[in-house]
Amino acid sequence: MMVLCPAGANREGVSQTAKSFLHLLWDAGMTVGHSVRTLDEAVQIRGSIVDSWASMLESRFICGNRQLADELYAALKSATSSGNDAWFVDGVFEDIGSRHLKFGNSVKLLEPNVKKSAGGLRDVHTLLWLHRAGDTACFVPATGRTSLTKEFLTFLKIKNLVDVDEYQAALKAYEFLLRTRHAMHYRRNALHDTLEYALQLEVAEELGYGSKAELRSVEVFMHEYYLHARTVHRLHQRLTNLYREKLADSSRLQGEGEKIQEFLWLRGDTLSIDHELMRFDRAGAIFEAFVRAAELDVDMDFRLKSAIERSADLITPSMQADEVLATLFRRIIGSKRVARTLGEMNDLGILGKYIPEFGELVAFFQHNVYHYFTADEHTIVAIANAERLRDQQGVLREVFRNLKRKDILYVALLLHDIGKPRGVGDHEVTGVEMARQIFERLYMQEMFPDVAFLIRNHLIMEQIAFRRNIHDPETIKEFASKFERPEQLDYLYLLTYADLSAVNVNVWTEWKASMLQDLYMRTSEVLRRNLKGVQIDAFHQSQREAIEVGIVDSLSSSLSREKVERHLQGIQSDAYTAIFTEAEIARHIEKGELAETVSTLFSHSEGYTEVTFVAQDAPFALSRFCAVLAANDANIFDANVFTRNDGIIIDRFRVSEATSKRELTQPVCKKIADDLTQVMEGKLDVQHLFEAHHRRWKRRPKLPANPNVRVDVEFEDNPRFTIIDVYAPDSVGFLFRITETISRLALDIYFAKIATRVDGIVDAFYVLDRGGKPVTDPVWREMISSELLKTIRSLQEQELA
Fold first, then answer.
1. N vs C: which end of the chain shows fewer Cβ within 10 Å?
2. What does the pLDDT average to over 14-39?
3. Dist CA 219 CA 344 (whole Å)
4. Which helix (H) or strand (E) segment is 154 a member of?
5. pLDDT digits (tens, 9 = 90+) for 470-485
6. Radius of gyration of the chain (CA)
7. Is the Cβ–Cβ distance between 706 and 366 less than 8 Å?
8. Using 50, 70 and 90 to split pLDDT, how confident is the model at 4?
């Protein structure tokens, strides 16, 4: 707030009066900045600070001497009419770039900043500043009783910078964003501009979309938010580019460049159109522009984009099956600029009209903290991640570069989630049927079998890699049986990577990359050798024997061959020699011979710590390990459990610090080792240790419960084990309580796979009864399921208490 006083006024008296008034506002809880200036001082801000001059350009009269305010507006208008505002314009454009980059650089984020993200209120404000700085006609004084921004939008319509439809959409979007921001402030009782996951339910309820218990209500609200933000962002992009053009050399725009088609010009590294062309007269011209941009690998300027956007109505239902458009679309998919081009087609409203099934994905929002982008944005990011593989290193790059038909991968990625708006559950099945109709329209039937296979199976590779024992030959047998030829595995590996890496920045990790690559390499070997059934068993057995012989030979200089052979033969698991190094195996042998109750070993990597416990097997041993780790804020995201035939257990956990998500510190490692020794020796009660930890975590803020998280227990048969899959919301000490329940049910855990996502848990346990047999009795399975669900409900109640 600025207090404007006449030249020669008693500044001391004016300042005191202003402070008295401001104290009233501060006492009321308002945050108000202030200044006291004369008219000359106000105008002299020009040329100094961009933000201060921007505030001056959008100043509004509230109360007091109206004549003095009018003099200020006249002085500001005179100052802007003199030109020389390049410093301000450059500063505004620099701020736009840095602001968008800082706040996600996308309209479609999980937690947008309603003021400063792309498509937020600040995008409208910057348009106002630029036009007030460069066009005196825009400088209409406003009072506190009118909306300066709404008057500015009306000005754009009067000046024919937007048509009536664009004006109505922009006005509606601005009012929506403003209401949303007000609701956020009311709910937080403070200045608060980030629409966090936890706040979205409250704001949806505040704005009348339904109660917080109705998940669908928040998804409808966020869907509308994204559409309105997109409207603002499109307007912002078009008008800022128009402003840039005004500042550029007009001769470059009018004539320079090469005319490469009837209506298209190549000017430097930018594709443009005839200056007078406002819209296209045929749909083919739109697609030709996208094709030329993709094949020449150049950007389209704002005039071309504006003409395309205005011509979107040319993509009628009859054009969706047009053979010429289909040919052009295939050229886009076959270019080296697929993601960028499809992204522009999506942003300009063309892609959803041409493939209406994809249009259903636009701004489709799943209310969970796992998905960082809307479904359409996620799809484009996934394709971009796949394209970037050509410039990376490693196995993924080699597989990508060796693909004969990259267009199959891109189309599969484009369509892999199209079934979601019609039901997230089984969306891969729905997606195949939708894709069948799309391929018939687009004359791409020869591609359908491969793409249908990828859509139908796009979740399965991650499910096996992260939920199953990939070192078990039975796992590889089952997975390999899904492929008719090795190339299908190549496609699925790349699609799985692209899909996962586009979900959110925390999903794709070094650990997941190694698990997925391991599954790919093992399965690829089987497929390329054309192995089946017992051939796979024999192949794995020969590989294991070769590995064990190598380990025995390597360790024979420090340990007796008999001792190493006995140790390896006593652990009947291919996973053991796959995940542990020779040096680690030697330490296990040495620790297993000691009289210690438990030995704890630590190994640190970037972002996580491996904790290995070597001990004599005992009831509830695994649950005690989990309890001690949880009590020391070690978040378990992977576990491998091994039992030697003489009762020695070797359990390895991959953990990260619960808050920082980094590797454990040395003091924490020491406390884990000390706590576990006391627990295993009976000197420290594990329940007491865990309850003390749980009380600490209850005081920390938590995300609201998501009713969409699956809670279930499933059984899967395996030739050697019974696999129990447990689905539940994440909670403090979950793995401790679940493993404790499994042990209490007289079951032994031989392998565990922990898949903790930010929105829920999927843990898999390979179990046998105390007699060493799988669980086959339906009645017993029902009892196991009932007890596990009871434990999950108890944990949920504790979290909510």
1. C
2. 82
3. 25
4. helix 148-158
5. 988 899 999 999 999 9
6. 32
7. no
8. confident
Q: List, for residues 569-606, the tens digit of each pLDDT value.
A: 998 788 888 889 899 999 999 998 887 889 999 999 88
Q: Domains (ranges, CATH) in the chain?
A: 85-247 (1.20.120.330), 251-337 (no CATH), 355-531 (1.10.3210), 584-800 (no CATH)
Contact 290, 341 (CB under 8 A): yes
Q: What pLDDT does 607 receive?
A: 84
By C-alpha distance, which of 410, 405, 283 is closest to 337?
410
* Whole-number Å distance between alpha carbons of 755 and 737: 16
> Which segments of 112-260 are extended strands (E)?
258-259
Of the two residues 659 and 486, the one the predictor is more confident about is 486
What is the reported pLDDT for 251?
A: 42
- DSSP code of residue 599: E
Q: What are phi and psi of 17, to 5 degrees?
A: -65, -45
CA distances from residue 350 to 162, 167, 231, 408, 770 in whole angstroms, order as listed: 20, 21, 15, 21, 62
Q: State how far the Cα of 95 lies from the Cα of 51, in Å rounded to an integer.
A: 10
Q: Over the chain, what is the mean pLDDT?
A: 87
CA 311 and chain centroid, separation: 32
CB atoms within 10 A of CB 689: 20
Please say whether the dihedral angle defined by the alpha carbons of residues 357, 338, 335 and 491, taken in this order, is positive or negative. negative
Tell me the three-class secondary structure of 422-488, residue by residue. HCCCCHHHHHHHHHHHHHHHCCCHHHHHHHHHHHHCCCHHHHHHHHCCCCCHHHHHHHHCCCCCHHH
CB 120 within 8 A of CB 233: no
197: closest CA among 758, 773, 763?
A: 758
Average pLDDT over residues 655-669: 90
How many C-alpha atoms does 750 have within 13 Å on its Cβ side?
Answer: 23
Q: Which phi-psi region, left, alpha or beta, contains residue 384 (left: φ > 0; alpha: ψ -120 to 50)?
A: alpha
Tokens found for residue 345: 């087609």
**pTM for this predicted structure:** 0.85
Residue 296: what residue type? L
Give the start-end residues of each E strand in 758-796.
760-769
Reported as half-sphere exposure (CB side, CA atoms, 13 A), residue 309 has a value of 21
Give yes or no for a contact between 455 and 416, defined as CB atoms under 8 angstroms apart. Answer: yes
Residues in a beta bridge with 763: 726, 754
What is the mean predicted confidence (pLDDT) over 202-229?
83
C-beta of residue 717 within 8 angstroms of C-beta of residue 777: no
| Average confidence (pLDDT) over 420-449 | 90
Of 438 and 510, the structure prediction assigns the larger pLDDT to 438
